[in-house]
Write a structure and sequence with these properties.
Elements lengths: L41 H12 L13 H24 L6 H14 L3 E2 L12 E4 L2 E3 L14 E10 L2 E10 L5 H19 L5 E2 H14 L3 E2 L5 E3 L6 E5 L10 E2 L4 E4 L2 E3 L5 E3 L7 E3 L5 E3 L2 E5 L4 E5 L1
Antiparallel strand pairs: 1-4, 2-4, 3-14, 4-5, 6-10, 7-12, 8-9, 11-16, 12-15, 13-14, 16-17
Helix pairs in contact: 2-3, 4-5
């Protein structure tokens, strides 16, 4: 099944080779720090080459965020977080998902940003609003009204001065069932476990496997076909981030790599299908609820920085 990317990314992997041209040791470092290469990223690059020679999938320099780029992403994230805070204050039973879209658009633009979802690959709205059994990519509508007992994922992405940020939150509308409460809680725990497992010089598969195991231990499943993605200079960058992965697989996580942690956790089967009508919405095959939290993280020297939450 081919799934079009909107707020999350699905695509085949490609091996990225670290085959950069050699830099003079006394030349300015490629990261823009102003330091000589030998005093900045030379040892880092040599370590990457060693991993590559051992057959590891490693990021090239285009995926390593410079300090200036990180600062731009952080500024974008301030809007992204503020938008979801605003949604959280106003969301309630009886409102339409179009009203949520209006909040996202108006707040983003007021703060100087651009909703990244709007017109992305033809997507018609500024945010994704996915309710109950809808896994992701729900299109806001004035005909879809939130009701007591619903759970909804609001997935918001922001552009500011060419820098991208991305996150989503779950909201419980009034009193929800115990099953839904547990699903929302465990999904958030999965993300927190993913954050703790994001460490430099380990593999994406280590993090993804930790996320997956926590979901399974709680009786849930994780969607295979859709995962996280690099983010910062573009909406969707490499690497693809799977949450049904094996330890020791996937891209090597290194300082400066920026990506999303966003497992989609289902109460029942992990099987999904795409709405043939609008061509975007993804639903659970068995009609049971699904939940997703999303954060954007930056790998650091000793762990990771959570850019959005």
């Amino acid at each position: 099944m081919e799934i079009r990317p909107a707020c999350s990314l699905w695509k085949g992997r490609r091996l990225i080779r670290f085959s950069e041209k050699k830099i003079d040791r006394n030349a300015p470092c490629w990261c823009g720090s102003g330091k000589k290469y030998k005093n900045c990223h030379e040892a880092f690059d040599e370590k990457l080459r060693a991993y590559e020679l051992e057959g590891a999938e490693v990021p090239d320099r285009s995926l390593i965020k410079t300090p200036a780029q990180v600062e731009g992403i952080r500024e974008s994230a301030k809007i992204n977080i503020a938008v979801l805070d605003e949604v959280g204050e106003k969301i309630h039973a009886g409102m339409t998902t179009q009203e949520i879209d209006d909040i996202v658009y108006n707040t983003t633009v007021k703060m100087g940003g651009i909703p990244a979802d709007l017109h992305y690959e033809g997507y018609p709205k500024s945010v994704c609003t996915s309710i109950n059994e809808q896994v992701c990519h729900g299109i806001p509508s004035d005909k879809v009204i939130l009701k007591e007992g619903d759970i909804i994922n609001v997935d918001c992405s922001t552009i500011l001065n060419g820098f991208f940020s991305d996150s989503s939150r779950m909201y419980c509308i009034g009193e929800v069932s115990e099953e839904k409460k547990k699903l929302v809680r465990v999904t958030k725990e999965c993300v927190e476990i993913g954050i703790k497992a994001t460490k430099p010089w380990t593999f994406m598969g280590d993090m993804g496997n930790a996320v997956h195991q926590h979901a399974l231990e709680n009786g849930f499943t994780v969607v295979k076909e859709i995962g996280g993605h690099g983010c910062g200079l573009e909406f969707h960058e490499d690497p693809y981030v799977s949450y049904v992965s094996a330890p020791g697989t996937g891209m090597l996580m290194v300082p400066g790599l920026c990506f999303t942690i966003e497992p989609m956790v289902n109460a029942g089967t992990d099987e999904i299908y795409q709405d043939e009508g609008d061509g975007w919405g993804i639903y659970t095959q068995d009609g049971k609820p699904s939940a997703q939290w999303e954060v954007q993280v930056l790998v650091t020297e000793d762990g990771c920085e959570v850019i959005t939450y």
